[in-house]
Write a structure and sequence with these properties.
With about 110 residues, the protein is mainly beta. The protein has one domain: Sandwich (Chondroitinase Ac, Chain A, domain 3). The chain has one helix and ten strands, in the order αββββββββββ. The protein is globular and about 45 Å long.
């Protein structure tokens, strides 16, 4: 439910959102019009993005992927060792050094 949105506007909005995964391990959605994927990895794993692309991580984290950048946040109190290695089909692996202590959970972004 979105306040102030007509049924036609809601239908158009729903058609722009695609659920990529809704499992206990990974929850992920894609906003097709914006070209953005948001994913919660509750454990290391891989997510099929479509068009033969896959996003893989080696630690629990939150990911926002756009055409130009990838943002990663370690989940506060998740037990991460302070880094996440992310692999996106067609790109070299990216290693994100995640903030610890009082900054745990802060987002780190890298351009593609």
């Amino acid at each position: 439910m979105i306040p102030g949105v007509s049924p036609a506007e809601m239908a158009a909005y729903q058609n722009s959102i695609k659920v990529l995964s809704n499992s206990p391990e990974i929850q992920a959605v894609e906003h097709r019009k914006l070209g953005v994927v948001q994913a919660v990895f509750r454990q290391p794993g891989s997510l099929t993005l479509g068009d033969g692309r896959t996003l893989s991580v080696d630690a629990r984290c939150l990911v926002i992927l756009s055409e130009k950048a990838i943002s990663v946040a370690g989940r506060a109190h998740s037990g991460n060792a302070g880094q996440v290695t992310l692999t996106l089909s067609g790109h070299a692996p990216l290693v994100f050094q995640l903030p610890q202590g009082g900054l745990a959970g802060k987002t780190v972004t890298s351009s593609l």
